[in-house]
Sequence to fold (235 residues):
Amino acid sequence: MFLKVLSVIVFTMLFARTLYGSEESIEIIYFGHSMFLIKSSSVSIVTDPFNPAVGFPLPDVKADIVTVSHEHSDHNNVSLIKGNPVIVRGSIEAKGIKFTGIPSYHDNRGGTLRGNNTIIRWTLGGITFAHFGDYGEDELTEEQYEKLKSTDVVFIPVGGVYTIDASKALNIIQKISPKMAIVMHYRTDSYGLKVLASIEDIKKVIPGLEKMPSKIKISKSSLPTKTKIIYMETQ
Fold:
């Protein structure tokens, strides 16, 4: 009887692990600017799809969910994404995933220059992500920090001008201490808004910034114990 009960418990634990994907592999693809595809075996999420004016090639992408941090045309081109996705602009549950919208500003003057911005946080495959959109405040407020302090992976802008620069981004990364920080919203050698800082400029500010391919896979157990800051090639 004991062995039968034990086998049922073990089976239930294994089934729950498979069902909820606690160790599921998550694929991340970078298209440039602030646009990523984050994909598990069951759901795909696109962040801040850009428009042609940004200068990156427009990808052919299908997704279940699209997150939008603010209503500027280089971040809200939802019509680009195929598959009739659910649009997430704040706190909502979609496709079984709880998204939390964290209010912030697009500038360091209370939104008077560029308006509001929403940091969007969610958990997929046991990994908690936060996409900062066009975050422009000089530093995190206490309320923002409390909602972000246990985040595993952050997508954070570093290009300056319209967002925080690499120095302010580094301060935020050091405060939150995520397992991984992926920088975004900068200029590459071939693409991106010319006024933004280049990746070479950013390397001078963020020591140990590591280059990764345009497509990576991570899991909860594979995340580093010490914060790793990376930039990705574009797809």
Remarks:
- Residues 25-232 form a domain with the Metallo-beta-lactamase; Chain A fold (CATH 3.60.15.10).
- The first helix runs from residue 2 to 20.
- DSSP finds four helices and 14 strands in the chain.
